Amino acid sequence: MEMQIKPFKIDIPSLQIEDLFERLNKTIFPSEWKNADWHSGPTQDYAKNHIQYLLNEYDWRKHEAQINQYPQFTTEIDGQNIHFLHVRSQEKQAKPLLLLHGWPGSFVEFLKVIDPLTNPRAHGGKPENAFHLVIPSLPGFGFSGPTKESGWNNTRIAKAFIGLMDRLGYEKYGVQGGDAGAIIGPELARIAPNKVIGLHVNAATMGFIPMGPVNPTDLATFTNVEKTRLERLQRFMSEHFGFNFIQSHRPQTLAYGISDSPIGLLTWISELFTSFGDAIDAVDRDSFLTNFLVYWFTGTAASSIRLYYENSHDPNAWAPKINSRVPTGVAVFSEDVAIRRYAEQTNTIVRWTDYDMGGHYAVLEIPDVWINDVVSFFQELR
């Protein structure tokens, strides 16, 4: 029955783990230049170190058991299986909060912040700042995938998550998202502004940056911070945007390689987690590998990257956006590119915080700072 919510536990068959090890042991490494660095992509040393760690030290069963300590569920919405964590706080004042990941992330990003957000008393916080957390896997990602049909773009995903929150009985709730979650979150707010009490984003791009060249007259008014972010954005577009272009235009060609080779998938998703080699150790290795294995064991490498194709071929994705009028908070970490003057064109910005630390995966890199910003934003809305 489509409305049914079913309890869920992760239990990867041992044969899949054995197959992973066999494939890793048979990895065929590409050639590389002498004294190779990350200028052309992940190095052999990086790949070999991760293979050895996976084979000899990393314990999937330990991490699987840790995830399974949290209540997980699946339900069918719009013909698609949706997996989610639903962790309710014991605090009576707790507010519902929907946490949205992006690519190549997953619900794994949020595991370390679940207890501080649901049980702030135990972490030196105030009980009135507690949240009931709903942490879904995007359709086509992890245990919400693969998708069964085309059409799962940001708008359809946003509508599915509105349906999920309705099904859970939450009439009003907050939304937090990073990366693709920072695109889906604002879309959700535009569709259901009467339901979203506040929207918080980080790693924000589309809707928070200039789309195309900046007029020289406007550029002359930029602050030094804005100029730095624009330069960072331009460097990203010129040097690192290839993954986006491929996934937006020929995802199935790429899908064969990253669906068949575990080290192919690991290195493909590693670039964003390492800031293309500039911050190799920013995210702890076990979190990175657990996230990678969620993709591998669920066979969702192909369906997850199709999100880029769906959105690039959706004419509405590029149409002018209305302002939802939902109060919006933006956390801009040191590697982010959001520029306030562009964000204000289609968002009601009530909090904007610049940090000289953290990166694309701030929730994993500096969770305490990320938590404080999220809590402070929703506290200010009271």
Find the CATH superfamily: Alpha/Beta hydrolase fold, catalytic domain
Count, helices: 16
Largest sheet: number of strands, sense, barrel closure: 9 strands, mixed
Overall tally of structural domains? 1
Compute the average pLDDT: 96
What is the helix fraction of residues, given as a range?
40-55%
Compressed to H and E, one letter per element, the order equals EHHHEEEHEHEHEHHHHHHHEHEHH
Low-confidence runs of at least 5 consecutive residues = none
CATH first level: Alpha Beta
Summarize the structure in words.
With 382 residues, this protein is α/β, with parallel strands linked by helices. It has a single domain, classed as Rossmann fold (3-Layer(aba) Sandwich). Helix content is 42%, strand content 15%. It has helices at residues 14-25, 44-56, 60-67, 114-118, 154-167, 181-191, 216-219, 224-239, 242-249, 251-260, 262-273, 285-298, 301-312, 340-343, 362-365, 367-380, and strands spanning 5-8, 72-77, 80-87, 95-100, 131-136, 173-178, 196-202, 327-332, 348-354. Strands 1-2-3-5-4-6-7-8-9 form a nine-stranded mixed sheet, with helices on both faces. Helix 5 (154-167) crosses helix 6 (181-191), helix 9 packs across helix 13 (301-312) and helix 10 (251-260) crosses helix 11 (262-273). The longest helix is centred in the middle third of the chain and has 16 residues, at 224-239.
